[in-house]
Amino acid sequence: MMREGFSQTATELRVLYTAIVLLVGGFFLYSVRGLLVPFVLYLLLLALLLPYAGTRRHRLLAVTATLLMALWFLSTLGSLLAPFILAFILAYILDPAVDALERRRVRRGAAIAILLLPVLALITGALVFGIPALADQLDALIDNLPLAVERLERWWQGVIAAVQRMNVPFLSEEALARRMRDLDGEGIAAFVRERQDGLLRSGWNTLGRGVGIVVTVIGYLVVTPVVLVYLLLDFDRVRHAAMDLLPASRRESIISFISDYDALLSRFLRGQVLAASIVGLLTWLGLLIVGFPLSGLVGAIAGVFNLVPYLGLIASVIPVIIIALFSGSFLGSLLKAGIVFAIVQFIDGSITGPRITGSSVGLHPVWVMLALAVGGYFFGFVGILLAMPAAVLVKLSLIRALKRYRASALYNEPEIETEL
Fold this sequence. Notes:
The chain is mainly α. Helix content is 85%, strand content 0%.
């Protein structure tokens, strides 16, 4: 009897002690809430989960917390990490070519130089010779600015005439003229003066963003190549070291998943990058042959956006229309560009596309655009870089989950006939 009373008292004391610890701990966390950045909370959560180590619940919570921590890390430091992530993706794409040269008894450093020096020479040549040519073409287009304005005025007058023929009251010629007369010059000046400080701040902010973009581009041009070279030198060692860190009990299954993921991702990235590069190159050469202005710029836009199938054509239409508007013959320039685009799309759809990407992972264009949009919205440029690897990861996970479901008893359970 006394033992039962003592046990009950000990339990009550333990509950009271736990409540006091939680209360004091809550006050303590509230007092230092400014220091509780997500990383500290993540480490604290992992420490609290240690007593449950080895259980399935512990693995689930730890993996979930790690994924959330990685997402926070990317959203917070994404702009800083973007050059490094870009360098890693490029190293992942180029590593098989370096390994192939190594198998031909070329030293790894020399193999990297063989791959990167032509690219560096191409970029240098584009900067040295392409920028002056681009400037000359821009000057020629600017000289045609009055012609472009005249074309826009004729188009706008045609729109106004069409609207007026529809007898819309608030868009009639008299209503538009009355609104123009109601515009007070002094009122406009007062409006601008009232918002002068805000306009100046907006101007300075725009200038600051422009300077920031220039600094970011310089950072990419300097940091990314250096990191790329170091990653290519040690890519195999880094990969083997990462494999050695996997838990022995689950190493085989994890390596199997990583191998499937690597096969899908490498086929998609290398195939899509090669196909997009061919589209950009053919677009540039075609426009250059027909004498279309700024052919290099349009080719670059077509190549970059063609990473999403057919989006390169859509994204190239707007700059082509604008450039044609400034050219000597608007319809003639559009006709030339249209012929080039038709030929390039035929070659991409019938010849190069099926040969290069026909056996790749086959992500649907809508899925690709959705991944790019979501990644860019939440994580900016680094989200765009990681959108395709994430999309391939989701697809592989769904394929494996569907395979397990079809092999499960739930899917294969025979239908039970009931007697009426």
